[in-house]
Amino acid sequence: MNTRLIRVGNSQGIVLPKKLLQQYHLTGEVDLQPTPEGLLIKPVVKTRRQGWDERFQQAIAQGQAPEGELLEGFSDEAFEETEWQW
C-alpha cells in the first residue's frame, strides 16, 4: 500500500486508512519504532493505574502518610434495612 506524505504545520504526516486503524487497533497515541526495514507503528497499551504504586511510594518517601481506610466505619444501616432492594 502506498500513501503520500502531507504537510502538517512544519512537519509532515501520513493518512492511515480506517481499515488499517481498526485492524491494528490504532487510536489516540501510537508507538513509533525505527527498524532496519522502515518505521513500525504500534498501538500504545496503557494499563489502568499505571505508575500509581511508584507515585504512592514517592509520596511516602516525602513524608506523606497514607490515610486510613476511606470508608472505614461508614455504614448506613437504615438505608440498607429499609430502602435497599434487590
TrEMBL record:
Annotated SpoVT-AbrB domain residues: 6-49
GO molecular function, one term: DNA binding
Gene3D superfamilies assigned: 2.10.260.10
Protein name: Antitoxin MazE
